[in-house]
Amino acid sequence: MLISYRGHPYTLGATVTGKGVNFCVYAPKAAKVTLCLFDKSGHSEVNRLPMFRHEGGNWSLFIEGAKAGDLYGYRVDGDYRAEKGLLFNVNKLLLDPYCKDFFGEFTWSERHFCHLPVGHLNPSDNACDMPKSKVVATEKYVGVRPNTPWSKTVIYECHVKGATVRHPEVPAKLQGKYLGLAEPVFIDHLKHIGVTAVQLLPVHAFINEQFLTTKGLKNYWGYNTLSFFTPHKSYLVSDDINEFKLMVERLHQAGIEVILDVVFNHTAEGGIDGPTISFKGFDNLTYYSTLPNKPNVYINDTGCGNTLNISNPVVLKLVLDSLRYWVEYMGVDGFRFDLATILARQTSGFSNQHAFLQALNQDPILSKVKLIAEPWDIGPGGYQLGQFPAPWREWNDKFRDTVRRFWRGDEGVLPELAMRIHGSSDVFEHNLRGPLNSINFITSHDGFSLFDWTAYEQKHNEANGEANLDGHSENYSFNCGVEGFSADPKVNELRLCMQKNALLTLFLSKGVPMICAGTEMAHSQNGNNNAYCQDNCTSWLAWKNHQQHHPLTFFIQDLLAIRKQFAAFSYLFYVHNSDSRFAVNWFNEEAKPLSPEQWREPSRKWLSYTITDQQLGQSLLIILNASDNTINIKLPQSAFSSNWKLAITTAVEVHKTDIDSYLQVPAKSAWIFTSIKGDE
């Protein structure tokens, strides 16, 4: 017979002690909360124990002899009034919002819905279709963290499964798993490129949306969170969550940090007609934002049915507790926040003084990790690039779009391009932040791959089953004359050159560079720019000729060597005319300063400029020609040596005349020259 009694109400979740396990949940409006215990199979409910109410809305129960590995769930009874936003239904087994692990899988059925139809309580019991929360005895991460400064950070955004599921040198049982990323062959690949951090697409446990399963598709990216504390189970080899921690440790040993893409803006429970899995059943109005005068209508700033109510202190605590757990216990080094504007939106709109941002800033653990915002959502005032406070970094879509437009050959882009490649001071400097607050990228998981940017001018998302209506229609892409794959060597030569041009611009810009996995091997998604549901070869990296690195891999390696050598790219502040150490100068084709009129010439689609470091005696000359014509450019005088030394070019052939040091710069090519004191 189990011995149970009132537990302590201060630590939410299931906490293992020497005598047993303390269970605690938050359900302030519930009339009754019952802890349900299951056998090892997860199928048979062996006990139901009433919990004790505490002030503040918490319920607890301590069970002597309970231990790690035990399976459980909750049933919450109370008022069911859908029109008032009250969705209590004792027939629904609920997943613990703080569970660190669970057993079994979520299976879609009508039994999950709180009401059928809306307004009528659904009496069906969903326990047979629910995973069971699992008691875990967790230990803190003890590995040595790289602690790479932002000035040296290079981010590689990748998907846990897609990165290795087709890698022939990763053992079959590890392919597509956390431990696949920990394999030496994959880590060596990252090291060869020069990557210092992997940014993983969501690894919080997630489920497939029902509308996808009915089409035979899956949520591949993972932006549909089921549990904020549990690693996604299909990425485990032996159902041991410590595999995630082992992956982190091995990456850390190689000097590579781990950043998680986290989704605290919505959950898998969807809108009012969505399933009741966890939060809805404990206290719908606490966890989700609803219209003030219509509590049955969710605010949908995510486009996914619901919006997490992070302005509520209980929900804020949940988010902070989750973040700390992943740092302290799982070893991660930072987070990229999906649709981050939502996390700082008050009833009056976005505020960079929001409690969430303040809480992170003062937290002794979270204030020291890497924090990256995707600074937009579809809600009111949703675009907030540049508005997050220090020490936040932000995805800079203006950089992405400007670089794409320039190399596509758009007119009138030069002034903005100059802003972007020197750190977007117009975006970040107003609130005392520097160029390293900008996460610069050309491509990410969302949108065309870099190869597809050079191969498709139209999206091709038919496989998503949405009549090609999903995904962005304007991608600022350039197909090099042929839509899709081509056997023409000239087309493919141009496409490779264009990819190199974009990469050169990325890595020779001020800011923190990020590339999407597969960029270094010209990965294609066949023109799909919204492959969120393509859990197949469309998204998985092919690893063709894996023993011989792709030319783009070597090219990135060379670019990072230049970036590492020149201090201008790690400088924390913007360069202005008054700067005593650094100088930036812009030139026309005669090596004279670019005039205001020339800056504004719509037809001028090339740029020549130098970055000079007086202290270290080094200078770079960068020439970018996005036009369709060869241009003769006179090189400006070298600052620290008699001649410029060519370091990298994307041009297939190099033609330089001897008369006054003129250089023939072919169409669609980029050039880097160096001048270093004492280097003759």
TrEMBL record:
<dbReference type="GO" id="GO:0005980">
    <property type="term" value="P:glycogen catabolic process"/>
</dbReference>
<dbReference type="Pfam" id="PF00128">
    <property type="entry name" value="Alpha-amylase"/>
</dbReference>
<dbReference type="Pfam" id="PF02922">
    <property type="entry name" value="CBM_48"/>
</dbReference>
<dbReference type="InterPro" id="IPR040784">
    <property type="entry name" value="GlgX_C"/>
</dbReference>
<dbReference type="InterPro" id="IPR044505">
    <property type="entry name" value="GlgX_Isoamylase_N_E_set"/>
</dbReference>
<protein>
    <submittedName>
        <fullName>Glycogen operon protein</fullName>
    </submittedName>
</protein>
<comment type="similarity">
    <text>Belongs to the glycosyl hydrolase 13 family.</text>
</comment>
<keyword id="KW-0326">Glycosidase</keyword>
<dbReference type="InterPro" id="IPR014756">
    <property type="entry name" value="Ig_E-set"/>
</dbReference>
<feature type="domain" description="Glycosyl hydrolase family 13 catalytic">
    <location>
        <begin position="153"/>
        <end position="563"/>
    </location>
</feature>
<dbReference type="InterPro" id="IPR013780">
    <property type="entry name" value="Glyco_hydro_b"/>
</dbReference>
<dbReference type="InterPro" id="IPR004193">
    <property type="entry name" value="Glyco_hydro_13_N"/>
</dbReference>
<dbReference type="Pfam" id="PF18390">
    <property type="entry name" value="GlgX_C"/>
</dbReference>
<keyword id="KW-0378">Hydrolase</keyword>
<dbReference type="InterPro" id="IPR013783">
    <property type="entry name" value="Ig-like_fold"/>
</dbReference>
<dbReference type="InterPro" id="IPR006047">
    <property type="entry name" value="GH13_cat_dom"/>
</dbReference>
<dbReference type="InterPro" id="IPR011837">
    <property type="entry name" value="Glycogen_debranch_GlgX"/>
</dbReference>
<dbReference type="GO" id="GO:0004135">
    <property type="term" value="F:amylo-alpha-1,6-glucosidase activity"/>
</dbReference>
<dbReference type="InterPro" id="IPR017853">
    <property type="entry name" value="GH"/>
</dbReference>
